């Protein structure tokens, strides 16, 4: 079967925006009014986890102000995403009228690009970051899956290569975090280096085996065993909650259809991989840090580098594109910021480069690219992309995709 991209113009010849985008509404104006009316719940539903998970993780100390700020931020993000949806769908009609025919890149990619460009101007920095980086990471995932470059192919097929790169990214991120001049969110944080307590005595063993130093050399308060175990338990629990919440959210439709199948389905969807990955990741990092500190008699940046490099091996347990792309983006972003902060006498072109609003550009391109991917390369689209666009378009994009597909089948059938 020929790809949709190849026969798009033959298939859509003589068809209008109404035929493709809104056959259920007689005119573009009615389509616009209906999208304003019907799209409201979508984005509020999509961002519901943002309203639920942060307070759950916070675990206490809620004030009225906290809840008010949370609600305001949730409403702000949902409302503007709703606006992106309306602008995107409306632009499909506008571009059709402008060109007088349906155009391959102006059905999904350009409406996505321009809707993100218009509404992105009104998004707060934090929300622009959240959307921009999420979409950029998904875009990277698609590019990695699609690329025919030999180097990328090797990377895609070799778990070893992926793991080695993740180890390098992780070591660099942890090193920059310990450096202290860049603050970023990351899966874990290095300990602040303190001088060894000369007069202290510590004869405890790690895992009942390792006692190379008799002074207390680690900066953490508890014993090394307790420190390591504490990390493992907290991260395993976090992995468990994330995966369980994800399984519950993905199975909610079943709750309406057949509630007796709900819990077994959630259990089947649930996997221990994330839990195991997070626990191994922090456990091995802390264990290595403690052993290295005891061995060298002090905590040092080198210990942190070695430990974070080696603990990156736990990626083998959970070799997902999401984890890889997040690490890659952080690695690039933090390295750039570090270079910018620590280098004196920067050349003029670097200063100019830093003034470019990367985040806004990335946001526009990535949204357009992912809109396009959902319809024209659907098998490559990550599940979150389909969910986000379909929630925020009241499934109109899904119906558009099916319509195009049925036209293509019809076209193939007539040709045969
Ligand atoms: Zn129209
Ligand atoms: Zn220790």
List key phrases describing it.
72% helix, 20 helices, single chain, binds zinc ion, mainly alpha, 416 residues
Give the DSSP E fraction (strand runs of 2 or more residues). under 5%
Mean pLDDT: 88
Which blocks of ≥5 consecutive residues have pLDDT under 50? Answer: none
Structural class, from secondary structure content?
Answer: mainly alpha
Q: Cα distance, first to last residue?
A: 11 Å
SS summary, helix count: 20
Tell me the major beta sheet.
none
What spatial form do the alpha-carbon principal axes imply? elongated
User: What is the helical fraction, as a range of percent?
Assistant: over 70%
Provide the succession of SSEs.
HHHHHHHHHHHHHHHHHHHH
Describe this structure in words.
- There is one protein chain.
- The chain has 20 helices and no strands.
- By secondary structure, it is mostly helical.
- The chain has two domains: 4-151 and 358-415, no CATH class; 158-342, no CATH class.
- It starts with a helix and ends with a helix.
- Bound molecules: zinc ion (2 copies).
In short:
This protein is an all-alpha fold.
Give the topology.
Layout: H1 4-12, H2 17-21, H3 28-38, H4 40-46, H5 48-58, H6 64-99, H7 104-107, H8 109-120, H9 125-146, H10 150-157, H11 159-179, H12 224-257, H13 262-269, H14 273-296, H15 301-311, H16 321-342, H17 348-354, H18 358-376, H19 383-392, H20 396-415
The structure holds zinc ion (2 copies).
């Amino acid at each position: 079967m020929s790809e949709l991209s190849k026969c798009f113009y033959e298939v859509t010849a003589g068809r209008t925006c109404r035929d493709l985008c809104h056959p259920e509404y007689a005119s573009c104006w009615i389509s616009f009014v209906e999208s304003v009316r019907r799209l409201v719940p979508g984005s509020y539903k999509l961002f519901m986890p943002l309203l639920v998970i942060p307070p759950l993780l916070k675990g206490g100390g809620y004030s009225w102000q906290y809840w008010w700020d949370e609600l305001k931020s949730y409403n702000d993000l949902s409302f503007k995403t709703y606006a992106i949806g309306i602008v995107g769908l409306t632009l499909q009609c506008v571009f059709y009228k402008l060109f007088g025919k349906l155009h391959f890149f102006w059905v999904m990619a350009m409406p996505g690009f321009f809707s993100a460009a218009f509404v992105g101007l009104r998004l707060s920095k934090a929300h622009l970051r959240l959307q921009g980086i999420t979409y950029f990471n998904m875009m990277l995932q698609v590019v990695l899956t699609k690329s025919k470059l030999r180097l990328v192919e090797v990377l895609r097929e070799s778990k070893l290569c992926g793991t080695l790169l993740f180890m390098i990214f992780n070591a660099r991120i942890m090193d920059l975090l310990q450096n202290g001049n860049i603050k970023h969110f990351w899966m874990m944080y290095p300990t602040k280096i303190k001088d060894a307590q000369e007069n202290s005595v510590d004869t405890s063993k790690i895992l009942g085996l390792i006692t190379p130093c008799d002074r207390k050399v680690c900066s953490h308060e508890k014993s090394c065993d307790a420190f390591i175990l504490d990390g493992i338990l907290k991260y395993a629990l976090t992995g468990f909650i994330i995966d369980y919440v994800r399984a519950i959210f993905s199975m909610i439709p079943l709750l309406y259809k057949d509630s007796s199948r709900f819990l077994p389905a959630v259990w089947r969807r649930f996997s221990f991989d994330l839990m195991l990955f997070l626990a191994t990741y922090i456990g091995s990092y802390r264990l290595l840090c403690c052993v290295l500190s005891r061995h060298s008699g002090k905590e040092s940046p080198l210990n942190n580098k070695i430990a974070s490099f080696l603990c990156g091996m736990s990626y083998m347990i959970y070799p997902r594109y999401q984890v890889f792309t997040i690490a890659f983006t952080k690695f690039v972003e933090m390295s750039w910021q570090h270079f910018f902060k620590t280098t004196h006498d920067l050349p003029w072109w670097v200063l100019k480069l830093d003034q470019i609003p990367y985040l806004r550009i990335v946001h526009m391109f990535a949204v357009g690219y992912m809109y396009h991917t959902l319809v024209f390369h659907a098998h490559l689209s990550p599940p979150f992309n389909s969910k986000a666009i379909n929630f925020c378009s009241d499934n109109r994009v899904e119906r558009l995709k099916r319509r195009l597909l049925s036209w293509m089948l019809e076209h193939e059938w007539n040709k045969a």
